[in-house]
What does this fold into?
Amino acid sequence: MRFSKTLIPTLREAPAEAEAISHILMLRAGYVRQLASGLYIYLPLGWRVLNRINKIIKEEMDSIGDQEISMPVLHPAEIWQQTGRWSEIGEEMFRLRDRTNRDMCLGMTHEEIITWLASKEIRSYRDLPQSWYQIQTKLRDEARPKSGILRTREFLMKDCYSFDKDEAGLEENYKKHEEAYHRIYKRCGLNFYQVESDPGMMGGSTAHEFMAPSLAGEDEIVLCDKCGYSANREVEKGDKCPKCNEPLKAEKAIEIGNIFKLGTKYTIALKAVYLDEQGKEKPIVMGCYGIGPARIAASAVEQSHDRDGIIWPESIAPFDVEIITLNMNKTEVLNASESLYGVLKSRGVDALIDDRDVSPGVKFKDADLIGIPWQIVVGEKNIKDGFVELKYRKTKEVEKVRPEEAVKRLTERH
It folds into this structure.
């Protein structure tokens, strides 16, 4: 893509209301814009980051046999009433009535809807196990939206639901999803912990959260350096490890995902049953597995930045490389830049070319602010000698290399 043709509205100063580092930098670098409290528009760079994160999530979900579906955001009240959560959930739920005066709500989660589907489609033990997932919009009327895209009223969620005939099957599915989550977060370049947590309004017997350590986090986790025990502070309120009695240390963190053993809470309420090998009717046993793609993006910025801007992990950056064209009035510079751009694209390397007629200083500042992992600087003096500069954003290391060497290195990384 060409910088001159792309909506990348960088800012020299952050709006006064921005507090979290990820909020400040994603506004300044032109990734998002705020429409209203807790409502954000993802601009081209921001949307590319989310799509890269979602691609990783889908690959890992598909690899363990999960099947992607899509469910409505608008839900009839009666399904929520059958589980009791219509009355249990308070002002966080957006409620409305349609033109026939029927009570409806906007989905803040999809346990009721997916269980309704299972009740219609699963009949026998031969139909089990099943795992269905979606990446879908969720809406919650947060009392205090804050920290940019970390706590919003409308957000994307990857929610997955497993269906098994017994607890042993659920245990197997739970383990598969647990391992897939570890792969997802590692591929996204995050530091994270898996901690014990309270199931809360989701219900069920067991729950774990995945936490990215960050000062911007609203959660506090406790960790034991000796035995590796970890938990959300809400679950473990003591100062000593319950497993080895050593002191616990506390750390702020961002919740980036969670997994729950729901058991039969929803399937009994919504009559999602199957016939076992003896023809006896039994409730399906459920698990639930959620990930917030936007929280992965914000956590990556919180964990990887410097005073000049964002430093994206290579796997989720909006582009693999930015070509910075200096001396726009020089034909040899333009030709070399365009040649690099075309060759990189032909080799599957996502490139952004800064073809704007602005000063080199502006281009360098914007490049560091946007945080694309690699930069190729094409200038008049170097190109006459047959070289370009290859800069690694993370270390700021700069090398003079031949254009073909720059292409070779970047191609090998992708």
